[in-house]
Design a protein that fits this description.
Elements: H1 2-8, E1 14-16, H2 21-25, E2 32-33, H3 35-43, H4 48-53, E3 55-57, E4 60-64, E5 67-71, H5 73-77, E6 81-83, H6 86-99, E7 103-105, E8 112-114, E9 122-127, E10 130-135, E11 139-141, E12 159-175, E13 184-187, E14 193-199, E15 202-209, H7 220-230, E16 243-257, E17 260-261, E18 264-266, E19 272-273, H8 281-302, H9 306-333, H10 341-356, H11 358-368
Parallel strand pairs: 1-7, 4-13, 11-18
Antiparallel strand pairs: 2-6, 3-6, 4-5, 8-9, 9-10, 12-15, 12-16, 13-14, 14-15, 16-19, 17-18
Helix pairs in contact: 1-8, 8-9, 10-11
The structure holds flavin-adenine dinucleotide.
Flavin-adenine dinucleotide (FAD) binds near residues 17, 24, 111, 148 and 281.
């Protein structure tokens, strides 16, 4: 996305990706796009398929005590969300980049950074069996949580904030039509469950599981039994189907602060991770690079560093808002191993407040759609 936005500003870039094109366009992860993300993609000319195939949702469901409640996002905030898989966004972006003949290199297993925060950074790697050296003005680490760029910030120049949650999510993709028109977040005493979708024919379901669980502990029968139990609601039936993809992801929060040193900038998961509960990770990553593209364009146009200097403080304000929201929603919806009956009743009281108070529902809605100030 950054490479695409820079190209539109007349700024040249080179993208080095460790994995193959096939791998990155099939990696199933996020699926909830905030209105701001949709607007950014559309304004950048990569929103045509998104407009055709994205599912616009005006509300989300909250289910607890076997009852359904709805948060009307559109009525409370004037904004909606769009369901469109992250891999589809990636597919559209790669096609747009390659159509412009961009320098996007896949299968580069050995990217090395030389003095990336100095005045003349260099990147090296092997592209199609041949060494490639890139000398550049800036390096932007868009290489995810497990990438290499963050480690090039000088140790004394940044701080890492971590929070680990005592559970994980088991996510499955099912070849079956969704059982509800909107996303449903379920709080159940056996643990959290989420009903979502990727298209009218594909359902996405998640279950809270133990942090140390492996997929072996979750045969199909157990997955369906837990989903039926945790998502149960009068008159509602979950449609089963073949599980075409499954994975377990631990829940964690992380922030690297600041997100920049000299010529090295971090964006997206390289700088911050949130638990997927609030559906913020992908949206934050797009917001980061949209801001950075503008600042870099300003530098090339006017040699002004003011946008670049403001990048990290402005991004961190957004990131910490998303951190706080994702933490709150995760705490509200999950069963914690040390929770007793007191904690359970307190959690239910909190959920009831959310469904009875317009103010509480509005607070959730404006954070969920990405409209919180
Ligand atoms: C199972 C799962 C479910 C999720 N669900 C949601 C959700 O519902 N909603 C939401 O908003 N977010 C969700 N997320 C988070 C979301 O996917 C991320 O926040 C988002 O992908 C961040 O984008 P990014 O570009 O910063 O990083 P990534 O998408 O991780 O991209 C980084 C890229 O850098 C490449 N790379 C890494 N190291 C190197 C290297 N050394 N050299 C070259 N290339 C390298 C990687 O191969 C990768 O392609 C989920 C994540 C997971 C894992």
């Amino acid at each position: 996305m950054l490479s695409h936005l820079l190209d539109r500003e007349g700024v040249e870039s080179v993208v080095l990706e460790k994995h193959s094109r096939d791998y990155v366009v099939h990696r199933v992860r996020a699926g909830v796009l905030e209105a701001g993300t949709v607007a950014t993609l559309t304004a950048a000319g990569v929103g045509d398929r998104l407009a055709r195939e994205g599912l616009v949702h005006r509300g989300i469901g909250i289910r607890f005590d076997g009852r359904d409640h709805r948060i009307d996002l559109a009525e409370l905030t004037g904004k909606a969300i769009t369901i469109y898989g992250q891999q589809e966004v990636v597919k559209d972006l790669i096609e747009a980049r390659l159509a412009r003949g961009a320098a996007v290199h896949f299968d580069v297993p050995d990217v090395r950074l030389d003095a990336p925060s100095g005045s003349r950074p260099r990147l090296e790697g092997t592209v199609s069996g041949r060494p490639l050296v890139v000398e550049c003005d800036f390096v932007v680490g868009c290489d995810g949580f497990h990438g290499i760029s963050r480690d090039h910030l000088p140790p004394t120049a940044w701080h890492a904030y971590h929070h680990e949650y005592p559970f994980a999510w088991l996510g499955i993709l099912v070849q079956a039509p969704p059982s509800a028109a909107e996303v449903i977040y379920a709080n159940h005493e056996r643990g959290f469950a989420l009903h979502s979708m990727r298209s009218p024919a594909i359902t996405r379901l998640y279950l809270q599981c133990d942090r140390g669980d492996s997929l072996d502990a979750w045969p199909d029968e157990r997955i369906w039994s837990e989903l039926h139990t945790r998502l149960a609601s009068a008159g509602w039936r979950l449609t089963e189907g073949p599980i075409i993809e499954r994975g377990i992801a631990p829940l964690r929060s992380f922030v690297a602060e600041p997100m920049q040193h000299g010529s090295l900038f971090l964006a997206g998961d390289a700088a911050h991770i949130v638990p997927p509960t609030g559906a913020k990770g992908l949206n934050l990553a797009i917001a980061d690079v949209a801001a950075l593209a503008g600042s870099l364009a300003e530098w090339y146009r006017h040699r002004s560093r003011s946008g670049l200097d403001d990048y990290s403080p402005a991004a961190l304000r957004r990131v910490w808002r998303a951190q706080a929201f994702s933490y709150q929603l995760t705490s509200l919806l999950h069963r914690f191993p040390d929770h007793d009956q007191y904690d359970r009743r307190r959690q239910l009281a909190e959920l009831q407040y959310l469904t009875r108070s317009r103010a509480a529902a509005t607070a959730l809605a404006e954070n969920y759609v990405g409209a919180a100030p």
